[in-house]
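Homework help board

Subject: predicted structure for assignment chain

Our instructor gave us this sequence and asked us to write out the predicted structure in token form, then describe one feature. I got the tokens but I'm not sure how to describe them. Can anyone check?
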Amino acid sequence: MSTQPLPLEGITVVAVEQAVSAPFATRQLADLGARVVKVERVDGGDFARAYDTAARGLASHFVWCNRGKESVALDLKDPRGLDVLRRLIADADVFVQNLAQGAAARLGLDAATLCAAHPRLVAVDISGYGAHGPYAHKRAYDMLVQCEAGLVSVTGTPERPVKAGVPAADIAAAMYAFSGVLAALVRRGTTGRGGPVEISMLEALAEWLGHPLHHVMHGGTEPARTGVAHAVIAPYDAYDTADGGQVLLSVQNDREWRRLAELVLGRPELAHDPDFATNAARVAHRTRTDESVAGALAGFTAAEAVARLEAAGIACARINTVADVAAHPQLAARDRWREVESPVGPLRALLPPITLGGSQEAYMGAVPALGEHTCATLRALGMTDEQLAELRRDGVIA
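My token output:
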């Protein structure tokens, strides 16, 4: 049976992007078959290239966010470099940028300006706080936005707030930019017109704040920071095991508590003890509840604890390290790992989580070297070798 093509084959995306929010958005588009032309600075390119050297000499952020793209290095401060970019945009379906607030408008690359000139273009502006308002020009790195959006206030322990361990504000903005592009392309298919798409990191992450935000707005108190414990369910926490591991378990109702007490804790009397028989009672006596669970699990290895909990029908999980995730048996069983090419050779990478049945597998192209596709792309615009040599000599391209 023949497979369908990837849904974005034939779509061209031009991106003036850096760091995570825009690059992660356009990587999703590349994975679905779009041609993504990544425009980088001539002097070092996307600054995420220099964040670290963990991926066999390449930066882990860059490898994660930029596979499957073509790198074109242009000096946009030079009119000739800006003209090349404008020519690329004229033939594109989508343009994405996350320059510092105001920089794109000064270059005439803001979404409103570009869409007025190119009615079929979908143009995306990603910023920290949006195009107007008192925070519009405030610096907006991921951790700063995590703080402004309140995520840090609900993450951590009672003693200390902490940031999320991944760039949550960047990822939230990236995924709304990705879905915004898809929605705009669907609309263009019916109306013939693209249009601007605006994404704010603050607004994206504030949406992700979800139930705590609604809880507080509608009369509740600020949620307590509880580490990995649940604020209103007990036991729902991580407990140490005999081999130095940790296992998290979740008791969702009183029937499960009875099974836990009888089959795992070995203390059937707790099933009907009024101090523990209901969730409200267990929360009221959380310290004693946790002591009972912790005492039992401390006698098992993590594997033994998980086996006993699963046999009792109690939801549970090991608290894995990142290395554990890289070796996770479920990911291996589902064949989720592939290799992508890069300037340092093949690198292991996860298949994207969108699986399209009956379609070709996601396109997981190479991680590009800086300016790797500059000459080929500009030749396709009609430039001669002499013109390319002149631009390279003057530092307009790399």
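Reply (TA_rk): Your tokens look well-formed. For the description, you could write something like this. The first helix runs from residue 21 to 31. That's the kind of observation they're looking for.
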